[in-house]
Specification:
alpha+beta, 5-stranded antiparallel sheet, 23 strands, globular
Length: about 375
């Protein structure tokens, strides 16, 4: 996969992924050259021309390159890739053995759209809308007296004990039938935004429409309130897409993350390749100063001006089609919100270098903060 001689390749691995309809391969190599050490990769559809690149932005030390190589290998093996061939070294075997237990959850993912696209979809009268939360995707189910939780990768996970206990208690009080929810884990509360199974019926297998699932969610919220579990569980109600402008205005005023659009007649289908479920995020813009450049990644540390002091607000990745800006450069980024008390920007994305602004344009006072923050503007 590279021009390095065989003696220059210190470690290499070939991985395959055949999950669902995928048929991909991934090559990873740790190489030595005259200036140091590099980690190269190549990936794409098996049998096709592979996309090649570097995991290290430039030659670095063996220690750093090895950490990058090991981290990348762990991530791929835990993301449904498996090694090619029968010979597997002890390190790879250890990673495979430590993979989390898989559960029956392959989530439908949301397709990003902009405001104009969202508005046009809602005009068709074919969509319902919900608020988008910024917790962690969580599968939550009850069956045969036990609770089970998973993440967006379909891996079994643990949640806070009070939520696990409350789920079992709610199930027992509401009839004891099995159910499965698609939720956002907010730490203290599970926000339910879709139903996968309701009172013993698997809504994925029965191909229940989102319109039906939305009605069942309303019934579920009544049950949650009737049995006194509002502290632990909350259903995110679905509103008609024709109310897009009103819902969007209220959501932006309340500093919500965004909106979710789902087609009324859509069924639950795993993955991203279905034009029925979308997300609109409310991005903000900020000008920041580059404080430093990461030694091995295409990312820079951002800073904003608080009085006379520069405060770090996280890192942002620089895309491969843009030059990495040097320290002291001013850049524009988009982000969803800032965490309070000098915290990072959430989901920053590089936009452009600014040569027409001054450091005063990087003021911390211009940031928009996470909902509920005492620094919320």
């Amino acid at each position: 996969m590279s021009t390095a001689s065989q003696a220059d390749i210190l470690s290499s691995t070939v991985l395959y992924c055949t999950k669902g309809s995928s048929n991909k391969e991934y090559h990873l190599a740790l190489e030595k050259n005259t200036d140091g050490y590099l980690v190269r990769y190549a990936n794409g559809k098996r049998g096709s021309t592979l996309t090649r690149g570097l995991k290290t932005a430039s030659p670095t030390s063996l220690e750093i390159a090895q950490k990058v190589y090991d981290k990348t290998l762990r991530e791929k093996l835990r993301d449904d890739y498996y090694p090619a061939g029968e010979a597997v070294n002890a390190d790879v075997q250890s990673i495979i053995a430590s993979k989390p237990e898989k559960i029956d959850f392959d989530p439908q993912l949301l397709i990003p759209i902009d405001e104009a696209q969202a508005e046009e979809l809602c005009k068709t009268m074919e969509y319902g809308i919900q608020l988008k939360y910024d917790g962690e995707r969580r599968f939550a189910s009850y069956d045969n007296g036990a609770a089970l939780f998973g993440n967006r990768k379909g891996e079994k996970v643990q949640v806070r004990q009070h939520l696990a206990d409350a789920l079992v208690e709610f199930a027992q009080k509401s009839g004891g039938e099995s159910f499965a929810w698609d939720c956002e884990d907010m730490g203290e509360t599970l926000v339910i935004f879709d139903l996968l199974k309701y009172k013993g019926e698997d809504l994925r297998e029965s191909k229940a429409s989102f319109h039906l699932r939305a009605m069942l969610m309303t019934t579920l919220q009544h049950e949650i309130e009737f049995y006194g579990f509002e502290k632990f569980f909350k259903v995110e109600y679905v509103q008609d897409g024709l109310l897009f402008e009103q819902v969007k205005a209220i959501a932006e005023f309340d500093s919500e993350e965004g909106l979710v659009l789902k087609k009324w007649d859509s069924i639950i289908e795993p993955g991203l390749s279905h034009n029925t479920h979308f997300k609109l995020k409310f991005w903000k813009d900020a000008t920041v100063k580059v404080l430093s450049v990461h030694p091995t990644k295409r990312s820079v540390q951002m800073g904003v001006l608080d009085g006379t002091n520069w405060v770090a607000v996280g890192n942002v990745t620089i895309p491969v089609n843009a030059s990495i800006p040097a320290p002291e450069t001013l850049i524009d980024v988009k982000y969803l919100y800032a965490y309070p008390n000098g915290g990072s920007l959430f989901e920053p994305s590089f936009k452009r270098v600014r040569t027409d602004l001054t450091e005063l344009d990087c003021s911390i006072e211009k940031l928009s903060y996470k909902k509920g923050s005492d620094q919320l503007l």
